[in-house]
């Protein structure tokens, strides 16, 4: 990890995780797993200690399925800081994961600005609020951006890097390099847009999913099966552009000329359906509860986490096999 | 398989695959793998024989990764018919997979109608054309519907069942039962809609993907990574409704009330971007060719097929473990 620390002469390469809920705890695992020292800080007394215990449990789960090898060593790299200043002291990078509210993030940025070193970067886990809405007032704003993960970040590699208008290009480059070195897959937006990339893509698909139910064309369960037994199989390892690039003899341009008209026509038919209103919510809620009673939500979430871990292991094995193939 | 054949006293349970290109060949594997006898027919002389040889090769690939056990026995259940009448003789079900053109499908349906038994169902692999556009004129039309697979159907279980206005409910029920018994995952539309479920969902996501590139917000490569390293991980085993049902403490209704507004706002911002025009096609084509040169398209398609096979095996193992867990 020497190539990370050498980028900032005044930092010792420590990562500060500020806000230690599920997202912050997940980030701590990402950085500690990669060999970096992590300091946890949370304004709520006792929260960082509870997070550190939870991190230990999660590392045990990851070891059990073969996703990490030495959980005790990883856990030992995660420490609880006495104060925000203590957490940020010598930090290369701060991952902020507090409540998704402009006022909360704005106040925290003032506190961070007061104690931050001259070369430390700050990434916010914000899933929807752009950094421009809570960093305008701080001196360190050129070193701030959004670094939005999918939960949990130690299983889903994606990180969306979204600069505010005043974020320095070197900040994006530096955080991108850090994320790549700790094994994440950073993507970059050139500027802020509501929902960033991930929730824009999820949002339009969800909008059509709700519309199919609203129009009585299909049940929520059948919409789900269409993805989990069909579309989602390719999307688990290829994006939408690569998928269509391989689905016409002449690649993506060939595909676009053949099918662009169909998709424009489908899109035109979706314009008037943007409601998510209460009667529709009640319909979908009833259909989901018939498939999964409310009492089983948390057990099913645990199932989802087991499946995500198994899929992460599967993908790691596949990618190792691909690399072996390429190096022949 | 006795429960399939007993549903139709006049049929011996044979499946007729009419049109033996990639899609028809894939269907033959699905039915033969499940123990059913399959007759291949293609109007192009020699095409069915070539398909049968290709099916043998594919079965070998599937055996190599552990997805089928006795490829020779499966292959032996697939025979080439001398004529359309021969293929349909005693057939429980006809899977039609000819060229995606209304005139071609209309003419073929007249031929099928002339030789079909009184209880045989006809499913079309049509990915976009509703059965109402090519079955209005035939006597057997109450027994016709669309049964649209994702390619290849022996790796992607999804089958979209889409009735024409005159399709009998018993036809939908019968074909659904058949598809379930051969291991596919049927979903039903209540009526025809352009793109059915699968391509409507893919279409809106693609539309937003193209828009992100058009607006210069992200590259095609980063859009792809956002799916393959993020969104697509959950969608490989959970649909969009189950995903959000597990993403808010109170389930899907709670999620909708929290985030419906965001998604409506995102949707409203996408209305004016429906072009897929030539300059944009050129931009995406250039970005894709930088990632994957045209000369490597077919090698990458072979990679995709290997990954799909491995994912199918992974999912089969996971589902077997889930069932063992449930039966405890």
From TrEMBL, chains A, B:
GO MF, any single term: (3S)-3-hydroxyacyl-CoA dehydrogenase (NAD+) activity
Tagged with keyword Oxidoreductase: yes
EC number: 1.1.1.35
Enzyme class: oxidoreductase
Gene3D superfamilies: N-(1-d-carboxylethyl)-l-norvaline Dehydrogenase, domain 2, NAD(P)-binding Rossmann-like Domain
InterPro entries according to UniProt: 3-OHacyl-CoA_DH_NAD-bd, 3HC_DH_C, 6-PGluconate_DH-like_C_sf, 6PGD_dom2, NAD(P)-bd_dom_sf
Pfam families: 3HCDH, 3HCDH_N
Classification via NCBIfam families: PRK06129.1 (NF004783)
Protein name per UniProt: 3-hydroxyacyl-CoA dehydrogenase
Naturally occurring in which organism (per UniProt): Methylobacterium terricola
